[in-house]
UniProtKB/TrEMBL annotation:
SUPFAM superfamilies: cAMP-binding domain-like. The lineage of its organism: Eukaryota, Cryptophyceae, Cryptomonadales, Hemiselmidaceae, Hemiselmis. Gene3D superfamilies: Helix hairpin bin, Jelly Rolls. Residues 93-150 form the Cyclic nucleotide-binding domain. InterPro entries: cNMP-bd_dom, cNMP-bd_dom_sf, RmlC-like_jellyroll. Signal peptide: none annotated. It comes from Hemiselmis andersenii (Cryptophyte alga). This is Cyclic nucleotide-binding domain-containing protein.
Length: 150
């Protein structure tokens, strides 16, 4: 996994240098890749879990993310036997690593996603004034539940 990850980072650095990007942008990209490696070790479990059959995927999710389920009130309320909900939920999981200052979404984006904060803090900010509406800490969620409840 590390070799593949280093090749991906090297390819991005090569691309940025070929495009004549300033060194500070190249350095920032390298910092992002290093941060991503430190937080995931190159393994994106949500992607791997989606390859499993639904029943097994749900069981693996409950084992791997029991701490997240315990910290998120709306997940605690869902019956573990509700395979329709959990099947949809786990089939759409995407794990991403963000760095300070990255935008997850904007208020003009369609309300079709649910965000779970697995670690760190996510700020809900008014873009023009930088006013912080809310701080979402690890275990909190925001966004739209409708895609999973249809």
């Amino acid at each position: 996994a590390e070799g593949r990850f280093r090749r991906e980072m090297g390819g991005m650095v090569w691309f940025l240098e070929q495009k004549g990007m300033p060194q500070e942008l190249v350095d920032e990209a390298v910092a992002f890749y290093r941060h991503r490696w430190e937080s995931t070790k190159g393994f994106v479990d949500a992607y791997e879990m989606r390859k499993l059959p639904p029943n097994l995927r749900v069981q693996v999710f409950f084992e791997a993310y029991s701490g997240v389920i315990g910290a998120c009130g709306f997940l605690q309320l869902r019956d573990r036997e509700d395979l329709l909900f959990w099947g949809r939920f786990t089939s759409q999981l995407i794990a991403r690593t963000y760095m300070r200052g990255d935008w997850l979404c904007r208020d003009t984006d369609p309300p079709d996603r649910l965000w779970l904060v697995l670690s760190g803090t996510c700020l809900e900010v008014q873009e023009e004034t930088s006013y912080v509406f809310h701080r979402h800490k690890a275990g909190s969620w925001f966004g739209e539940l409708a895609p999973f409840l249809e």
